DNA sequence: GTCTATACTGAGATAGAC
DNA sequence: GTCTATCTCAGTATAGAC
């Protein structure tokens, strides 16, 4: 039922727009009443994100199970182990992503989800012994790396998600290792491996 | 008027709770009608964040005006130049922060604001010549550093905001420079300057 | 400033699974 | 019988249209 409601919502939000769609219409398309919709989802936005709790669970599990590495190494390892997406999944996720980016209310909810995910990763790192004041920074960096890779992947990159993720982590390493100088003009003799694409 | 509405909202949201407060009550306490409230703010949440656009503007201006440094150096310099807060401001901001953290709806809006701020910083970096795929990572890291410092500051730390901010940036440097090893057990001979507090 | 659509909530009734 | 899912009905408050 949740799946039916989610499919109905994505369809209507996409073709008619989020704010020109009522919850009653979503429910009707799924074959239930509005009240039933609200038994399954707390509000009009949450349908679109159904199933993301599972993603968060597997992510924290991957962090917990990663071998001993540097802090960012743990995240790189954990996120890479989840990067086995197929092309069919990509189409569905790209559709979801289009609906979300087209709708301020859904973007807001997505931002909240990202914060929540970051806190979950911070907690998972803490359980491995990483102090919070470092873990929160690592988690925020790691999640942004993941977001960027996902953005590029959904954008239609010809490269695999795993490759995009690895590149993004490499850029993060660059960032603090001192390689990423500011531009204009090219800094003091240091080569700038900034542009890869 | 916006200030009166904001003060009224923060007072009622704090003492009675956000969802037990109606916009009509907020308006009444500020001495206007509900309609007038919605002339100044687009929804029930936005009052709490009145004035944050100015913060974003001064932040992007500081990024634009920072000297040539490493990527994170630019953000460190820019954010530090804004770190002149007094104790009176701290009390007011701590009160706002308490109301926000107590209310899911307001936390969600805050998350959206953070995303927006991060994008603004990314844009400001791009105008300096930083390619987006690096700038977005740097901005996300920098904003998280800023958030952590602010959190500690509002939490009642005896140290100055500038000092907390500097420490947080130092931790970020540690993160990728290889200093931040995972814990349990202590890694191969490398000293671990993890715990400072 | 008035009016209305609609997101959301609560209580109670019904129906089917077990 | 209990438990769970759904529907019906009656509201309130936000937000937007006029």
TrEMBL record, chains A, B:
Positions in coiled-coil regions: none
Q: Which Gene3D superfamilies match?
A: Tetracycline Repressor, domain 2
Mind listing where the DNA-binding region sits, in residue ranges?
22-41
Q: In Gene Ontology terms, what is one molecular function of this protein?
A: DNA-binding transcription factor activity
- Database matches in InterPro entries: Homeodomain-like_sf, HTH-type_TetR-like_transc_reg, HTH_TetR, MftR_C
| Domain HTH tetR-type: start-end pairs | 1-59
Task: Name the keywords, alphabetized.
Answer: DNA-binding, Transcription, Transcription regulation
List, alphabetically, the PROSITE patterns matched: HTH_TETR_2 (PS50977)
Q: What is this protein called?
A: Transcriptional regulator, AcrR family
Instruction: Look up and give the organism this protein is from.
Output: uncultured Quadrisphaera sp
């Amino acid at each position: 039922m949740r799946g039916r409601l989610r499919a109905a919502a994505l369809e209507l939000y996409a073709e008619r727009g989020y704010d020109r769609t009522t919850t009653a219409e979503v429910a009707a398309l799924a074959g239930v009443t509005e009240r039933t919709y609200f038994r399954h989802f707390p509000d009009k936005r949450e349908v679109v994100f159904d199933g993301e709790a599972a993603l968060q669970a597997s992510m924290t599990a991957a962090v917990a199970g990663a071998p001993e590495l540097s802090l960012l190494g743990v995240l790189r390892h954990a996120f890479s182990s989840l990067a086995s997406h197929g092309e069919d999944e990509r189409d569905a996720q790209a559709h979801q992503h289009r609906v979300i980016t087209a709708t301020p209310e859904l973007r807001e909810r997505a931002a909240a989800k990202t914060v929540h995910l970051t806190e979950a990763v911070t907690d998972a790192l803490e359980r491995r012994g990483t102090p919070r004041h470092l873990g929160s920074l690592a988690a925020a960096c790691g999640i942004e790396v993941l977001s960027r890779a996902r953005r590029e992947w959904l954008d239609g990159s010809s490269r695999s998600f795993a490759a995009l993720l690895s590149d993004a982590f490499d850029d993060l390493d660059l960032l603090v290792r001192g390689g990423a100088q500011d531009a204009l003009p090219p800094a003091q003799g240091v080569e700038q491996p900034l542009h890869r694409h």
